[in-house]
C-alpha cells in the first residue's frame, strides 16, 4: 500500500516504519477483527460507548458544521450545541474594556484551550484582541500568584472551567481569585458579571455563586479530555474571535468526515494507530515520543499525554479480561530543542522508542530571516528521522547507531486554527482506534479517582481536622507528623 496518506491537506508519511505489505495486510485485518469501524460508528451514532458510566462520547457533535442532526438517547443534540455557540459569539462581541481573562481549569478543562491559544499566539502575536489570557491549573499558589500580579482586577473576567465543578484545584483557585477581586474593591454586582462558569454541572456552578446567564454548559456525553470543542474552548473565541474558533471546529469536522468516510487503507487515524500496534508487536515498545518541529506546538505532547494515557493507561478490557500491552508512556517536546535532551537515547538507547515527527510546511514567524530558520528546523527534523531509521556504522561499536528505529512524519500545510483542529481530531480518532484494538473503555479514568479520594483525609489532617489520622497509612502518617512538627 501507499506509504503516504492525505486527509484535510495533512499528510501522513509512514515510510520509515518499514512495514511490509504483508504486515500492513495483517494490521488492517486485526483492525477489522477488533471491530474498529463498528466502534467508530457506535461513537458517531451516540451509543453509550462509555460503558462504566453509561454515557455516549459524542464530541464530534460539538464541531458538527454539516447541518445534520446528531443523536443522544433519541434526541438531536445540535440545537443545544448551537444555542451555546450563539451565546459565546454574543459574549465575544461585548468584551470592550476587558484587559485580562483568567482561565481556571485543570486536565481536560485546561490543556486543550491552553495548547490552541498558545499555538495561535506563537504564530501570530498580533492576532485577535489585545486581551491577556492567563491559564492557571495548578493548586500550587505560585502559578496563581504570578498571574494575579499581572492582571488588573477591575477589568478582568474569570472563566471557571470544570466539567464536574467539584475539582479541588479549580475550586480552590476560583475561591482565591474571588478573594483577590474582593480585596480590590470589586463590588458584588461587578463580581457576578466577572465570573463565568463552563461546566456540565450548572447546578453546582450556580450554588458556587455564578449567575445562570454566565453559565455556558456542556454535557455528560462530552469526555473531559475531548472537551476543547465545547465551551471549554471559549478562551480561543475570546482572544482570537468567534470566527477563528469556528475555523478550529471546521478543521476537526473535516477530519471527522475523513475518519467516517475513508476506507480503512486510506484512513489516516486508523493507519496512524496501526503503526503503534505494529511497534508494540514487533519491537515490544513501551514508550512513544511526540516531537512537533514547531515551537507553537510545544504543549501538544502534554495534551496528548492526557488523551492517551488517561484513556488507555489500563490493563483490563471492557469485558473484565486482562489484556495485551496498552498505552505506552507518551512523552515529547518541541524540536529541535528535544534533540539536545533525550534524542541520544532514541538513537542509541537499549529500547526502541518510535517517534511521531510533526512538521509544518510554512515558516511560523514574520521575521525577515524566517525562511532560513524554517529550513534549519525542517532539515533537523528530516535528518533525525533518517538517522533513526538508517543509523550509522562507525569504527567502534560505541559510536555506531543501530538504526531500524521507526518514525512517522505528519505534515501540516501551515499552522492555523483550521489545521490545528484537524491535527487534534486526528489524534483523538487515533486514540479511539487504539482503544477499540486494545478492547478498552477509552472514556473513563477510575485510577485517577483513587488519588483524589485519598487526598481528602490527608488535607483534613494537615488542617488539624483529622487528629487520629483516619484513613491514612503508617508511612504517610509519619510524613504528616514530620511536616506538622
Ligand atoms: O473538568 P473537571 O471536572 O474539573 O475535571 C478535570 C480533570 O479531572 C481529572 O483529572 C480527570 O481525570 C480528568 O479527565 C479531568 O479532565
From TrEMBL:
Record's keyword terms, sorted: Cytoplasm, Gluconeogenesis, Glycolysis, Isomerase
Pathway info: Carbohydrate degradation; glycolysis; D-glyceraldehyde 3-phosphate and glycerone phosphate from D-glucose: step 2/4; Carbohydrate biosynthesis; gluconeogenesis
SUPFAM superfamilies associated with the record: SIS domain
Gene Ontology, cellular component aspect: cytosol
One record GO biological process: glucose 6-phosphate metabolic process
InterPro entries tied to this protein: G6P_Isomerase, G6P_Isomerase_C, Phosphoglucose_isomerase_CS, SIS_dom_sf, SIS_PGI_1, SIS_PGI_2
Highest taxon, organism lineage: Bacteria
Active site positions: 310, 340, 452
Reaction(s) this enzyme catalyzes, per UniProt: alpha-D-glucose 6-phosphate = beta-D-fructose 6-phosphate
Class of enzymatic activity (EC top level): isomerase
Chief site of localization: cytoplasm
A single MF term (Gene Ontology): monosaccharide binding
Localization terms from the record: Cytoplasm
Record field: transmembrane: none
Protein family per UniProt: Belongs to the GPI family.
Annotated protein name in UniProt: Glucose-6-phosphate isomerase
Organism: Polynucleobacter cosmopolitanus
Lineage, uppermost ranks: Bacteria, Pseudomonadati, Pseudomonadota, Betaproteobacteria, Burkholderiales
Amino acid at each position: 500500500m501507499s506509504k503516504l496518506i492525505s486527509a484535510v491537506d495533512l499528510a501522513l508519511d509512514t515510510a520509515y516504519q518499514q512495514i511490509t505489505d504483508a504486515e500492513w495486510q495483517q494490521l488492517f485485518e486485526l483492525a477489522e477483527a477488533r471491530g474498529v469501524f463498528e466502534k467508530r460508528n457506535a461513537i458517531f451514532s451516540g451509543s453509550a460507548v462509555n460503558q462504566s458510566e453509561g454515557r455516549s462520547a459524542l464530541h464530534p457533535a460539538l464541531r458538527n458544521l454539516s447541518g445534520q442532526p446528531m443523536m443522544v438517547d433519541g434526541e438531536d443534540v445540535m440545537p443545544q450545541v448551537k444555542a451555546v455557540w450563539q451565546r459565546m459569539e454574543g459574549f465575544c462581541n461585548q468584551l470592550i474594556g476587558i484587559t485580562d481573562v483568567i482561565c481556571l481549569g485543570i486536565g481536560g478543562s485546561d490543556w486543550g484551550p491552553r495548547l490552541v491559544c498558545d499555538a495561535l499566539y506563537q504564530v501570530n502575536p498580533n492576532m485577535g484582541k489585545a486581551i491577556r489570557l492567563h491559564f492557571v491549573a495548578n493548586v500550587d499558589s505560585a502559578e496563581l500568584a504570578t498571574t494575579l500580579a499581572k492582571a488588573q482586577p477591575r477589568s478582568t473576567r474569570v472563566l471557571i472551567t470544570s466539567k464536574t465543578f467539584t475539582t479541588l484545584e479549580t475550586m480552590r483557585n476560583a475561591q482565591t481569585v474571588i478573594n483577590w477581586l474582593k480585596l480590590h474593591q470589586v463590588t458584588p454586582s461587578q463580581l457576578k458579571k466577572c465570573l463565568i462558569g463552563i461546566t456540565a454541572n450548572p447546578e453546582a456552578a450556580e450554588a458556587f455563586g455564578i449567575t445562570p446567564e454566565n453559565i455556558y454548559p456542556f454535557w455528560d456525553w462530552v469526555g473531559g479530555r475531548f472537551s476543547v470543542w465545547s465551551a471549554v474552548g471559549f478562551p480561543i473565541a475570546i482572544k482570537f474571535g468567534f470566527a477563528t474558533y469556528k475555523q478550529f471546529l471546521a478543521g476537526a469536522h473535516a477530519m471527522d468526515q475523513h475518519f467516517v468516510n475513508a476506507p480503512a487503507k486510506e484512513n489516516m487515524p486508523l493507519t496512524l494507530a496501526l503503526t503503534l500496534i505494529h511497534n508494540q508487536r514487533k519491537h515490544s515498545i513501551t514508550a512513544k515520543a511526540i516531537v512537533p518541529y514547531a515551537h507553537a506546538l510545544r504543549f501538544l505532547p502534554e495534551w496528548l499525554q492526557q488523551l492517551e494515557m488517561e484513556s488507555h493507561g489500563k490493563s483490563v478490557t471492557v469485558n473484565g479480561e486482562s489484556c495485551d500491552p496498552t498505552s505506552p508512556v507518551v512523552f515529547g517536546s518541541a524540536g529541535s530543542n528535544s534533540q539536545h535532551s533525550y534524542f541520544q537515547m532514541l538513537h542509541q538507547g537499549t529500547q526502541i522508542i518510535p517517534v511521531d515527527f510533526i512538521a509544518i510546511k510554512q515558516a511560523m514567524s514574520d521575521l525577515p530571516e524566517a525562511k532560513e530558520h524554517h529550513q534549519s528546523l525542517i532539515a533537523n527534523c528530516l535528518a533525525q528521522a533518517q538517522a533513526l531509521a538508517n543509523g550509522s556504522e562507525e569504527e567502534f561499536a560505541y559510536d555506531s547507531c543501530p538504526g531500524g528505529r521507526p518514525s512517522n512524519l505528519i505534515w501540516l500545510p501551515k499552522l492555523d486554527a483550521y489545521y490545528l483542529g484537524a491535527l487534534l481530531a486526528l489524534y483523538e480518532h487515533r486514540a479511539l482506534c487504539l482503544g477499540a484494538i486494545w478492547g478498552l473503555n477509552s472514556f473513563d479514568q477510575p485510577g485517577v479517582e483513587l488519588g483524589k479520594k485519598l487526598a481528602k483525609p490527608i488535607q483534613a489532617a494537615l488542617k488539624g481536622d483529622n487528629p487520629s489520622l483516619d484513613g491514612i497509612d503508617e508511612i504517610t502518617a509519619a510524613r504528616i507528623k514530620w511536616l506538622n512538627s
